[in-house]
Amino acid sequence: MVKASPIVPRVNLSGTYRNTLMTQQKAVRDAALGLMDALGKAVPEARDYPDPVILLQAKAILLSKLEAVMAIHKEAEDQIHSIRDQR
Predict the structure, then answer these.
(1) pTM score, two decimals?
(2) Sign, CA torsion 54/55/57/61
(3) Is the dihedral angle over the CA atoms 47, 49, 55, 59 positive or is it negative?
(4) Which of 21, 33, 73, 82 could bridge to 8 as Cys pair (CB 3.0-4.6 Å)?
């Protein structure tokens, strides 16, 4: 699983505007939500994977993908909160 990054951009006078940084991270968050939704609709079904071992492997792969996207979503949320809370 992907680990969320603790690296957060610093808001400062000569840098990118706070709203721009937040908008960028919100776009990442929203894209991750969309991908989670799409992956949730693509759950492997037994009728498509008649071999039970292959079905379990397909489900494990999907779960791994969901975990990676959830980590991206969490990192974006953390970034949004960190950027917002900077003074």
Answers:
(1) 0.85
(2) positive
(3) negative
(4) 82
* C-beta of residue 65 within 8 angstroms of C-beta of residue 83: no
**CA separation (Å) from 8 to 31, 51, 76?**
19, 46, 10
- Give the model confidence (pLDDT) of 60-75 as tens digits: 999 999 999 999 999 9
Contact present, 26 and 81 (Cβ < 8 Å):
no
Q: Give the model confidence (pLDDT) of 12-43 as tens digits.
A: 888 999 999 999 999 999 999 999 999 999 99
Residues sharing a CB contact under 8 Å with residue 72, sequence separation 6 or more, in sequence order: 2, 28, 32
